Amino acid sequence: MVSAKERARREEVATLREAAARGDARAQCRIGEMYDRGEGDVRQDETEAARWYRRAAELGDAEAQNLLGDLFGRAVSVEQGDGEASVWWRKAALQGCARAQHSLACSLADSDTEEAVAWWRRAAAQGHAPAQHRLALCLQAGLGTARDEAEAAAWLQRAAEHGVRDAQCALGGALADGSLGLKRDDALAIRWLQRAAKLGSAEAMRRLGVCCERGAGFARSDANAVRWFRKAAKAGSAEAMCALGSACMRGAGVAQDALEAERWYRAAAAEGLPHAQHWLALRWLGDAAGGAPDPTAAASMLAQAAQSGYELALASLAEYAHVREVASFCCTGCGATKRLHACSECETARFCGKECRQRMWPTHKMCCKGWQRGA
């Protein structure tokens, strides 16, 4: 027996289809949503959803235009690309749809930052929280607009109040650092960081750990700092993994354990954190007889850190240019590992080009002579 609720739903669908057949754009859009989401006994069908959205969109319905853009933006089976998504987002954006304005801005961010900022500003003015956050970031960095920290802080505050997790974290960080023209306020910073952490922000968790470590807004506690760092590391923060490694080396809030420290530094290095890669490289290069990996692995780790532009790693390359595994693995001037040329004299050291070879020659020349002799 069909329930009253089910009977009412079927009647609603029948009414929608009748209205859609008469050219009612809102009914057509609603049917598109049903196919898009697979509501009730309507099977999910993105192609059918696109057909209904398009009918409503071509009648000028802004919501349908936005949803059609979203559908194409997800690279669905209708075989349309981002280009068509932007076309429909723009149509809806021009009608004042804040969500479409935000989506259009995101699609333009890499190609036309100024236009993207203009659309984010329009969406932000309508209270669209993600747009407020993105506008704040652009104002803070001076991307596509003049740099304005005061306005950036104001938009960041609005986005945070509207529940944008990353805005809450950024606002908490700015209050903790006294940046963006804000007066330092540890207590308020912690409240925003805790709100962001509750929503799963790994960076907020890490920052709370730093606050505990420094005694900023909390009673200083290495143990509590480690607790927050562990939460952040579990949530994927490479910086927190590195902080745990440092705590294990120092025995701060946790038992001193060099092997555990190395495990955390390895995890951070695997996430691409340059100073973790650098720390491991130096540890391995200085502990070749202590069960450390092959020196070539240390050279590889040092090269990765240097290629990111990390200045300490670049300095260490020059310092360890006398180590054959380093000199023969990568360019000791910049860490490059591809398109290398062997030194014409020792045929051991590798350089990416003439500039690095000339710059490193004062460091390399003594090794060069020894390696020529087969030393």
UniProtKB/TrEMBL annotation:
Lyase among keywords: no
Keyword list, A-Z: Metal-binding, Zinc, Zinc-finger
InterPro entries: Sel1-like (IPR006597), Sel1_AlgK (IPR050767), TPR-like_helical_dom_sf (IPR011990), Znf_MYND (IPR002893)
Taxonomic superkingdom: Eukaryota
Gene Ontology molecular function, alphabetical: zinc ion binding
Assigned protein family: Belongs to the sel-1 family.
Protein name: MYND-type domain-containing protein
Organism: Diacronema lutheri (Unicellular marine alga)
